[in-house]
Amino acid sequence: ADFDRYRVSVFDQTRPIDGIAIGDTVQVVDGPFRDFAGELRAVHPDKRVDILIKLFGSEREIEMPLAWIRG
Hints:
42% strand; mainly beta
């Protein structure tokens, strides 16, 4: 029961992680897109996120681990 409350609070669609909401700009801090900034578009229950990043003049939605971003 406690685990379910934790999971809901961490993956709430408006506040997926402390201080960061869907639509906020986040910094990618790991992986092949390290040092890119993008817009947080979605958070998935498997601890992955969708980030909208501008690459070569166009926007791309990229899925990556939640651990790779910071607010």
